[in-house]
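User: Sequence in, structure out. Go.
Assistant: Echoing your sequence, followed by the structure tokens.
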Amino acid sequence: MLWETLKRLFSLAEFSACHLLLQGLVKMSLKSHGSITEFVEAIKRQGCQLKELESMVLNWIFVSVLLHGLGNTYEVFVSSTIQNVRQKELPAPNEIISQLLDKER
């Protein structure tokens, strides 16, 4: 009985931690960071923390949050990326991150 209680408590704690990390990830935006590099690094950190908790963040969620957080300044980039997804499969998050970092340079 004690073992079951402990398992339940720890699984709830993991869920809470995952929820808070995902919530932070969804609320991120380029406006709240000084540059694309800082924005991308913050998103990557949140994603890594979620993975450490053995939580699987699907690529489409990660890419969607990244694109959403860019705001109006990158509207052409976001539209282009979405248009490309319609024609082929979703690019890997690292591919989009590389493209963003290249644009900043």
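User: And one key feature?
Assistant: Residues 2-27 form the longest helix (26 residues).
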